[in-house]
Amino acid sequence: MADYETILVEQRGGVTLVTLNRPQALNALNSQVLADLIAAFAAFDADPSQGCAVLTGSAKAFAAGADIKEMQSQGFADMYASNFFAGWEQVTRTRKPIIAAVAGYALGGGCEVAMMCDFILAADTAKFGQPEIKLAVSPGMGGSQRLTHAVGKAKAMEMVLTGRMMDAVEAERAGLVSRIIPAAELVEEAVKTAATIAAMAPLAVLANKEMVNAAFETGLAMGVQFERRLFHGLFGTADQSEGMAAFVEKRAGTWTGK
Ligand code: CO8
Asked: What residues form the membrane-spanning segments (predicted)?
């Protein structure tokens, strides 16, 4: 497996576990982290033995934001010309699912990257926030949009205007995270959840992820149409014949990814 500077990558069966590893900066996201993550997720997407990924950080911080020290000396011209942060959208183009397993701080860019993943599992220690306004800037990696989609305008507006953090209980109640898990079991439970997904028929996993995402990117009529087309398309796969035959014959299905 490739060597990365700022992340650790290991395969656990069909699950790729990616751990942010800049403990000295609470996993602040700099350009090296971006390059490492893009390479790791591209390798994960291209590896047919891998079905689902987990992105996690440390017990103290998933990630405490974009690297303020890297951005400090940048001016408008540098940021605009380099389209700073645009590379992060690449993470959302990963076709297989990525679960964010968040313990401790997920602030600014850290919260934004967690929200780029397909769903968030939160440790009971998790804290989510968009505190950029305190630095006289704003979310820049999609946070103002994805947080608003996830928790609604009232909470999103309060969080981005005040920089207030949300704990795990509030985040679950608001719909930002799918479940809360005791911190000591977070990674193990996230890998187990990812293994459940990795054991599904691979084409069905891609199609199901794509259609849920369409709910955020299109209107209802287009989204339902998109779902229907993908649903029809899955009836062209060998795994659909196998899955339905296995059900009728009361046995487990075995998938070819065809
Ligand atoms: N960037 C760089 N270094 C960081 C960051 C960060 N975001 N967060 C923490 N660190 C560093 C600290 O500087 C410190 O380093 P050192 O030991 O060298 O001084 C080390 O990590 C440990 O941090 P603390 O000593 O502060 O740890 P505490 O436990 O006291 O506090 C906090 C933890 C509350 C998380 C605190 O570190 C903090 O407030 N961090 C900053 C949080 C923040 O503001 N994040 C948002 C950053 S901006 C962003 O993400 C998106 C900007 C979008 C701009 C769009 C432009 C296009």
From this structure: none
